[in-house]
Amino acid sequence: MAAYILRRLLLIIPTLIGIMLVNFTLTQFVPGGPIDQVIARIQGEGDAFRNIAGAGGDTAQQASSEYAGARGIPPELLDQLEVQMGFSRIVCTEGHEGAPDLKSPDCHKEKIGAFQRFMVMMGNYVRFDFGTSFFRSVSVTDLVIEKLPVSITLGLWSTLIAYLISIPLGIRKAVRDGTAFDTWTSSAIIIGYAIPGFLFAVLLMMLFAGGSYWQIFPLRGLTSDNFADLSVWGKIKDYLWHITLPVAATTIASFATLTLLTKNSFLDEINKQYVITARAKGLTERRVLYGHVFRNAMLIVIAGFPALFLGVFFGSSILIETIFSLDGLGRLGFEAAVQRDYPVIFGTLWVFGLLGLVVGILSDLMYVFVDPRIDFERRAG
Fold it and tell me: Where would I find the ABC transmembrane type-1 domain in this sequence (predicted)?
């Protein structure tokens, strides 16, 4: 098992580089880069895509710049932006004194190729240096740390609640398959699955956040304004009070899927020959269910853990974050994509990819914990 884990750990680096290479290559063909976004803001248009789609006017003047809609923008500013964002560098002659400066006649701008930019980025990322956001003037690491509490809250609590409810409920449904309990719980689960998370969030706000009926839970934020002044127990209650509605809205879809998956997995195992043999030996139903069926049926449920956790943790609905005024990683990623904030996009992609691969290894370890008969090392050989 140790050799298998070592091989998986060694595969993390080339896998991460492959993920980054694919996404970096795709961004080279996406219109409206970060400099176009800055130009649009300077011109008061707020959106670079208008310039890209409908640029017209003086062709000769546009030809003097690589950026559509750059008319009226000093070329010196464009050069500074290119250097600042890493698309170019300042090269000076050998006899130049002082810091490199484009205003000096001894210095000039030199383009940096895409491959070279990628290699520099990878060198920095291996050292966990993710650079600084183009538009926020804050390091990417600080941005991720700032937004992380929201994503941890939604991801951790939603996954934990989904498993704590879905697994016992799925087992109960499998044992009582075809009964009235199975029928009405299945109906409730299907209805819950059919309701989009953001729509359920709006419904919860209307019912319990003062929208139309009761003012039980707060409308926005992760904590109250006086959170720092509260006692330890007061902080815990305030935190749980704020996360109840957003976590409920995030959990509903994963809860339904996981319950049905658990039920079907247990039903498949209950009908196998070894269960009939165990019952014929006189074992109690509880011993059969939890001593034999459980570890086999839970394998497929555990296999879905990384996808469920990462889906909620990293892709927490931007709509739910917006509805409850939660500034998390989902919102950060969306804004970075719109603004073409490449350091934020690639920095978070690196972190998320690394965590995803590590969680995949932990999932394999959970397989072995549930069923020690599984030997990944022997299968890999």
Answer: 148-367
Mean pLDDT of the residues in the chain? 77
Predicted confidence at residue 152, as pLDDT, reads 78
- Please state the separation of Cα 373 from the chain's center in Å: 33
pTM of the predicted protein model: 0.69
Nearest Cα residue to 210 out of 245, 249, 238, 252: 245
Domain boundaries, the chain: 81-127, 140-380
pLDDT per residue over 276-305, tens digit each? 888 888 888 788 888 778 777 777 777 666
What pLDDT sits at residue 228? Answer: 81
Cα 230 to Cα 89, 106, 150, 152, 216: the distances in Å are: 51, 61, 20, 22, 19
Q: Check: CB of residue 332 under 8 Å from CB of residue 151.
A: no
Tokens of 246: 């957003």
**150, exposed or middle or buried, with CB in 10 Å at 0-12, 13-18, 19+?**
buried
Find the helix or strand (DSSP H, E) in which 191 lies. Answer: helix 180-194
Which amino acid appears at position 21 of this protein?
L
379 CB neighbour count, 10 Å cutoff: 8
Count of CB atoms situated within 10 Å of the CB of 38:
22
Q: What local confidence, expressed as pLDDT, does residue 71 receive?
A: 58
Domain 140-380 has CATH 1.10.10.10: no
Q: What is the mean pLDDT of residues 138-143?
A: 88
